[in-house]
Amino acid sequence: MKKRDRILLLSVFLTALIITLLTILAKFQLEQFKKAYFAEEKQEIVMLAKQVSWAVKPVLGSRNYKELQEYCSLFKNSDTSITVKKGDKIIADSSYKEPVKNSDAEDAETFIISQTVYHSMPIKAGTETYTLTISTTVQDISKTIAKAKKIIIFSIIIGIFIVIILSLYVFNMYKSFNQLQNSTVKISEGDLDTEIFIPRAGILYELACAVKKMSRRLKLQIIEMRRLENFRSDFIASISHEIKTPLTGILSAVEILEEQIQEENPAVTKCLTILNKQSQRLNSLVQDILSLSEIEKRKLSDRKDFKIFNLASTIKSSILMCTVSDIKINTKLEDIEICGDSSLIERALINLIMNAIKYSKSETIDISLEKKENFAEIRIRDYGIGIPQEHLPRLFEHFYRVDKARSRDMGGTGLGLAIVKNIIKLHNGSVSVVSENGCEFIIRLPLLT
């Protein structure tokens, strides 16, 4: 799951969790309040019962029931009711509603029935035993609690509604994110005609508009860059072709002059040697420019002429074309097949092997081929003078030379490694170099899928 999706789902989950916790907390606090309130009411009614018992005990001792009734009538319009019974007979009361328990109270007890708190206790007056029952209603607080419960239930319903709305909003945002992402991915893959998805509203609207505007500008810039690149490539190819024709004539003329000279003239011979050498060098440069221009024109998607070939056989043929008697080349090759242009791969390998032979001053070169994950990995290693670390980042640039004087003396054009990089890139691979106790070039080419 993507990080963005986890954040969206987490926001919904946290909202639902917070609402649930708040609901549970409110219900818990309400129950705690109810218990505390009833506990307090029980204490108050016990205290009141003791006070009343002290007041009515002398009256009961004198059996003045009329005075007792007058005392009880004082509580008639209050929330508290008093009843005095002798056995099952009511001696005095104040609008008393008979509780469920009808038996005489042998011990003091407090109980709650139908939103009313009762406290019954025995009173001994002379030889008689009476039962005093005091009750007080908690109907008001019960109504308040019931109202609070309704509010909690209503809050739960509102919370569920909020979670549903938030879930729908997150789901729509998730869809919008995915559609916008799919559009940008297609653009990044080179499909510049992709239509950018723009939601009707929401936080992604402005972002989508900005991305659409950016994609239009990017498309125009890329089209212009491609046009300029094609112009540059065509121009270089045309100039190279134009140079190649007179250059061929110059080389032919030099050969004729060398054959026609009868008398040995050191000055003329030296001039012809210089002319021949520089003409050959210029011819190599033109050939490399034409090759590089042709390779750069081809695209990664242009694989119509790619065929399956044995990479180990191509490496062996490349070595045969570069063999020098006084340099030992060791090989360790696995039998691997890839899809590509074997002639281009061979040219890239020849360039690297010839560089190792000409510039490294190494007596031994190791070449290996093996499978690494989903790639065929070629390593070409020498044990020569190496390359200074500051030159490695620019080594594959056009016309870049580590030692310019030595490269010119040996006929280098400065395009060999650029050609290697473009050939490998054409095959959707990579090439890198490590310089430590010599140099090691590493080529990674994708295996057959």
In short:
By secondary structure, the chain is α+β, with helices and mostly antiparallel strands. The protein has nine helices and twelve strands.
What is the number of strand segments?
Answer: 12
The first-level CATH class of the largest domain is given as Alpha Beta
Overall structural class, as computed from helix and strand content, comes to alpha+beta
- Gyration radius, rounded: 51 Å
**Residue runs with pLDDT of under 50 for 5 or more positions:** 98-103
CATH topology of the largest domain: Heat Shock Protein 90
Q: Tell me roughly what share of residues is in helical segments.
A: 55-70%
The helix-strand sequence is HHEEEEEHHHEHEEHEEHHEE
